[in-house]
Specification:
The chain has about 160 residues and is an alpha/beta fold. The protein has helices at about 15-30, 55-60, 80, 90-100, 130-155; strands at about 5-10, 35-40, 85, 105-110. It has one domain (about 5-155): 3-Layer(aba) Sandwich (Rossmann fold). About 40% of the residues lie in helices and about 15% in strands. The chain is globular. It binds 4-nitrophenyl phosphate (4NP). 4-nitrophenyl phosphate binds near residues 15, 45 and 125.
Length: about 160
């Protein structure tokens, strides 16, 4: 089976998708799962920026240093480079479907569809809220990361 390559996509790529990337990296490492991982935004406002301070603090509290992550915008090649692209909310999913090339090979889905209890729900944007919102974001993306690692591990076992 080809190596899984996972891309997490939110709006700005400075709050939610970097946390999803960090949670997935940690869960994949714990499980010994070899996968490529990245994150991106549908908007280009924060290209080259480090993650939001509150996201960095939240990640550190959970043992992940994301200070070297940098914002980038989704590009057409991503739909070929990645095997799975996960949108953090429905707006991001709509944007992804609109920008996907007809011959794109990545499987596109909503992140919380991976979690039985959270199916169909968005990861709410914590940008305009307080630190507690980022902690809630972590809990949601970490639940999705665990479910995705379990699924990919099963797939690998064939
Ligand atoms: P994210 O959050 O999509 O989770 O990275 C946002 C970050 C920045 C903005 C909006 C959402 N913004 O409007 O700049």
């Amino acid at each position: 089976m080809t190596q899984p390559a996972i891309l997490f996509v939110c709006l700005g790529n400075i709050c939610r998708s970097p946390l999803a990337e960090a949670a997935f990296r940690a869960r994949a490492a714990d499980a010994g799962l070899d996968a490529r991982v990245d994150s991106a935004g549908t908007a280009g406002w924060h290209v080259g920026d480090p993650p939001d301070r509150r996201a960095q603090t939240t990640a550190l509290r959970h043992g992940a240093d994301i200070s070297r992550y940098r914002g980038r915008q989704i590009e057409t090649a991503d739909f070929h480079r990645f095997t799975h692209i996960f949108a953090l909310d429905q707006d991001n999913l709509t944007s992804l479907r609109q920008s996907a090339p007809a011959d794109g090979t990545a499987e596109i889905g909503l992140l919380l569809d991976l979690v039985d209890d959270l199916r169909g729900q968005p990861v709410a944007d914590p940008y305009y809220g307080d630190e507690a919102g980022f902690e809630r974001t972590w809990d949601q993306v970490d639940a999705a990361a665990q479910a995705l690692v379990a699924r990919l591990t099963r797939d690998r076992a064939g």
